[in-house]
Amino acid sequence: MNCKTLFWKMLSLRYPNELQNLIENYESNKHIESLLKEHQRIGIWGLARMGKATIAKKIFAKHFAQYDSVCLLEDVREDTERFGAPHMRKKLFDELLKQPTTASEIIGAHAFIKRSLSGKKVLIVLDDVDDTEQLEDL
Hints:
It is a single chain. The protein has helices at residues 3-14, 27-38, 52-63, 76-83, 85-97, 103-107, 109-117, 132-137; strands at 69-73, 122-126. By secondary structure, it is mainly alpha-helical. Strands 1-2 form a two-stranded parallel ribbon. Helix 4 (76-83) packs across helix 5 (85-97).
C-alpha cells in the first residue's frame, strides 16, 4: 500500500461524513477549483457555520493525491491560542515531512524548508484562521 492510499484511508476515517460524495454539485466548489488552477494561494471566508471548512476538506480530499506533500491543519486559531505558534509550526512541518521535526530544525526553518521541500508540490489547508499573524507565523 503506498503512502497516498494509506493517507486517504486515514483521512476517510477522520472525516467520514464530510468525504461522502466528494465535490459534485456545488458552484462554490467549482469556483474554488478554478481558482486553484490560477493561483498558488486562495482563502475562503464568510459567516460562521456556512460550510467553509467542509468545502476546504472536500477540495483537499479530491486533490491531495496530486501533491508530493500535504497538510490539513484544523482549528488553527484555537490551537495557536492554546499551544502557541511554535507548536503549530512544528505540527505543520511534521505533517508535511511525514516525520517528527526538532526545535533546532524549526528555528533554522528557512534552510530546513528549502532543503526538505524544495522542488515538491505542496498542498496546505489551514482551517479557522482569523488573523494574518497566524498565517505569517506558519
